[in-house]
Amino acid sequence: MAFASPPLSAALRRPPSVLSSAACRRRAAAAADAPANAFWSAIARKFHWETPWPADAPAVAWNFDPTAGPVYAHWWKGGRTNICYNALDVHVAAGRGADVALLFEPNEPADGRARSLTYAELLEEVTAAAAALTAAGVRRGDGVVTYMPMGVELPVVMLAAARIGAVHSVVFGGFSAAALAARLAASGAEVLVTTDGVGRGGKWVGLKAAADEAIALAAADYGHTVVTQLVVRNRSAADGRGGGAEEGAAVPMVAGRDVWWDDALAAAPRAGGEVVWVDAEDPLFCLFTSGSTGAPKGVVHTVGGYMVGAATTFKYSFNYMPGDVYFCTADAGWITGHTYVTYGPLLNGATQVVFEGVPTYPDAGRLWEIVAKYRVNILYTAPTALRSLKRAGDAFVAAHDTSSLKVLGTVGEPINPEAWDWYYSVVGASAATVVDSYWQTETGAHVLAPIPVAGLDLKPGCAQLPHLGIVPVLLDDAGGLVEGEGEGYLAISRPWPSALRTLLGDHERMEATYFARFPGFYLTGDGARRDADGHLWLTGRIDDVLNVSGHRLGTAEVEAAIVGVPGVAEAAVVGVPHPVTGEALYAYVVLMPGVEGNDALRAAITAGLRARIGPIARVETLHWVGGRGLPKTRSGKILRRLLRLIAMGGGGGDLGDTSTLADPSVLDELLQTS
Ligand code: WTA
Question: How far apart are CA 253 and CA 251, in angstroms?
């Protein structure tokens, strides 16, 4: 075979061979990193470090190339700090203890449970909670799982765990017992903190029963024992409203295992709430999120880098100024509530509203009523909420004074221009800045955002610019850089402090998921387009991760839940555009021979999804597949691209290249049954 030698110019451009040695590459990379590292270290020094990181060590040591060795990024390793101390004690010590930290707004607007906590009061509560966790046997490095609704106690427990060097793993209160059991077992936590329940809209939702079931499942299915379950009493005597099946039902407590939160706090020796200094690279939390394949991944973040990233992005993305009131509607069951409720605002000494309820209860004016009540300056919410509130009509906004708003943040999914315009012109009266923040559980903090201080001309639906210290790149299929205008896979080419460090118990999966395809780059899993101004537009996931109402769901986990229903042989799930939830689940279901696709089976599938995942996994359209089955390649791979096109109406008859199909006649059948 003839081998063409490269043109001379290319040979001249090639670096001298000595640079290919790993040591030299590292040295070159370190030199290139120097300005960014100096920048981040200058910010890191603004925090309290009980022991500074070694003066002669670089801010970050890293490798993003799995072919050159294990992937890692360590920031300020060897320095000892505590994120809870920086979020609370520092402010109190500086004389800001009387500043309001949290303004709690309950589900029922006027049930008497609204309260505000100053930084000094919050520190008191967190210290008592930390003592209770210590008394329950939790030590540095141990896991603590929470299964709670949004409220004051959830951030309190997270901060308390962080205070004593424990690793929290928050499980969203809407997940099922089975989902909680899997996460309990994976985290290895012996302590679970839950609540009796929560009022959500007009209903009382019991959580303790699901938590009990999860503990039993964790023991039966995974051999994992929860030793202590602490139960926050959410139903105060004053809260007699709600209704729902469990109202008034006593919460059974298992002797020797279950302890009421208040009793645990009262009994714990206060000394147990003291700060435990930890290494910057000690794990802070693990948060499970969906990937395209397999079980949910436990994304692990560490103390130092996450602290710096959360605090910095909060400050600049929202242009937070002392005295501003901030309100994020996210539940701390998701990453947004971690970074932009529990940590980012408190690290900045901010005042924020914590909301237990939903935007549409008692009516679609609830958020605007809260904005008016607390004179909120910065609002951070999701496009899906905006779309449903927009549908309810402008009158709900007009009924309240929203003139205090100056920054309007959005997160979780692409925001369509109509929702953006409504946010900007109706909610913000064309006087506030819309900040479309793009990021992920894995990135820990904002990655792209038109930060207000940049003074950009805003483009509806565009996350626009990289955040501080982020170096995004677009890659083509071959891993080449897409320069200038163009589209590609969105990746990040150098480390940033709040990046994930590993996936719980599976570092190889972390390398395989994010770094193997394009060695040297963190692959986000999203596509993006760069316009003529150099601004980045997200174009959607490039993998099979679904995004319903801003919540990530993996095709594999949804399909596994459907296939678990008796009578179902096979399932394939795709996302289709939806006017309110962004994306909706469209499921193709192949039945066992002799089984009929009817309402009873539909109900069983809905119940199966609720039981395995939770109510967020709701199938919008069920498509019973006929005898020819799903479109597959000869090697048995499902052609999801075709399923997506058929789900969206058949692509106007043009399904593109179908030559890889093992049996092309399946398409006719699918089109006829759709
Ligand atoms: C999507 C949520 C477009 C994206 C913070 C990402 C977005 C996934 C945006 C992460 C945005 C988040 N514009 N898409 N502003 N924000 N996404 O881990 O697909 O729950 O990869 O983190 O949500 O979801 P996660």
Answer: 6
- What atom in ligand 1 is closest to the CA of residue 336? 5
Q: Measuring CA to CA, which residue among 297, 232, 214 is closest to residue 509?
A: 297
Pairwise CA distance, residues 529 & 587, whole Å: 29
Token pair belonging to 555: 């095709």
The whole-angstrom separation of Cα 170 and Cα 129 is 16
208-222 vs 177-187: helix axis angle to the nearest 10?
60
**How many Å is the Cα radius of gyration of the chain?**
25
514 alpha carbon – ligand 1 mean position (Å): 15
- What residue type is assigned to position 206 of the chain? G
Q: Which residues pair with 374 in a beta bridge?
A: none
CB neighbour list of residue 167: distance below 8 Å, 6 or more residues apart = 141, 142, 143, 144, 161, 187, 283, 284, 285, 286
Q: What residues does ligand 1 touch, defined as CB less than 6 Å away?
A: 289, 334-336, 411-414, 436-441, 463, 524-526, 538, 541, 547, 552
The helix or strand, by DSSP H or E, that contains position 575, with its residue range, turns out to be: strand 568-578
Tens of pLDDT, residue by residue over 46-95, are 999 999 999 988 899 999 999 999 999 999 999 999 999 999 999 999 99
Structure tokens at 334: 């998701």
pTM of this prediction? 0.93
- Residue 21 confidence class, pLDDT cut points 50, 70, 90: low
Nearest of 437, 386, 135, 407 to residue 263 by alpha carbon:
135
Categorise residue 78: left if φ over 0, alpha if ψ from -120 to 50, beta otherwise.
left
CA proximity to 95, closest of 353, 349, 324: 349
Is pLDDT above 60 for 240? no
Task: Measure 424 CA to ligand 1 centroid, in angstroms.
Answer: 20
| CA gap 387, 330 in Å, rounded | 16
Residue 56 tokens, joined: 């002669």
Atom of ligand 1 nearest to the CA of 448: 15
Of 120, 150, 501, 172, the C-alpha closest to 342 is 150
Read off the DSSP letter of residue 92: I
Q: Which residues are catalytic?
A: 543
3-state secondary structure at position 443: coil
Among 260, 254, 266, 207, which Cα is nearest to 226's?
254
Mean of the pLDDT values across residues 623-638? 90
Angle between helices 665-673 and 640-647 (to 10 degrees): 30
Report the alpha-carbon distance of residue 643 to residue 631 in Å, rounded.
8
CB atoms within 10 A of CB 382: 24
- Evaluated on CA atoms 662, 668, 673, 674, the torsion sign reads positive
Angle, vertex CA 305, rays to CA 300 and CA 306, nearest 5: 55
Q: Are 320 and 526 in contact (CB under 8 A)?
A: no
Of ligand 1's listed atoms, the one at least distance from the Cα of 415 is 13
